Amino acid sequence: MLSLLYQEGPSTEGIFRRSGSAKTCKELKEKLDSGAEVDLACESIFVTASLFKDFLRNIPGSILSSQLCDKWVSVMDQGNNEEKIKSIQRLIEQLPRANVVLLRYIFGVLHGIEMRSEENQMNAFNLAICIAPSLLWPPTSSSPDVESEFTKKISSLVQFLTENCCRIFGDEITSLFGEI
């Protein structure tokens, strides 16, 4: 999925913003869940993007860990960018290794898309609005106002992560997928 998103996302206007066919997504999700072979290259890239966001939303406790939710939310309230980056790196160190590996690939994809935002209309802000709710959610439900404020803060964090991913994850993030 990520490889396809890396290949096609940068040249696709509105990637992650537009949804794939709900019926197709449901059918493919059932096939994937049953372990059947699925060739996503034959599907719309919007279906792949929708399936990927669904996958992220189904990670128990979220990929950024709901247990660290308060710490993630407070990162953007810290001083300068350098302090934010160091805080983010310390939080990443607290995540399970599998989460960190997946995060590197996710932000490699987002970075590639952002680099061609003039073509695809998906700058770091737009990407964050679309993908942030799939990366972290609070451990308990709350009022719509509190959830709205939370979503804004997490979107701001994901925008910062996307814009600074090379400094946070290392420059090799741009070559994780090799030459495609």
Descriptive key words:
single chain, about 180 residues, mainly alpha, Phosphatidylinositol 3-kinase, Chain A, 10 helices, globular
Please outline the major beta sheet: none
The CATH topology label is Phosphatidylinositol 3-kinase, Chain A
What global shape is seen? globular
Which CATH architecture? Answer: Orthogonal Bundle
Q: From N to C, what is the helix and strand string?
A: HHHHHHHHHH
As a whole number of angstroms, the C-alpha radius of gyration is: 16 Å
Our count of domains comes out at 1
Q: Kindly name the structural category.
A: mainly alpha
Low-pLDDT parts are none
**CATH top level assignment:** Mainly Alpha
| Estimated helix fraction | 55-70%
Give me the CATH superfamily.
Rho GTPase activation protein
Oligomer: single chain
Give me the number of helical elements: 10
- What is the first-to-last residue Cα distance? 14 Å
Count of beta strands:
0
Q: Strand fraction band?
A: under 5%
Chain-averaged pLDDT: 93
How does this structure look, described?
Residues 1-169 form the Rho-GAP domain. The chain is mainly α. The chain has a single domain (1-174), classed as Orthogonal Bundle (Phosphatidylinositol 3-kinase, Chain A), CATH 1.10.555. Helices cover 62% and strands 0% of the residues. The protein has ten helices and no strands. It is globular. The protein starts with a helix and ends in an 11-residue tail after the last helix.
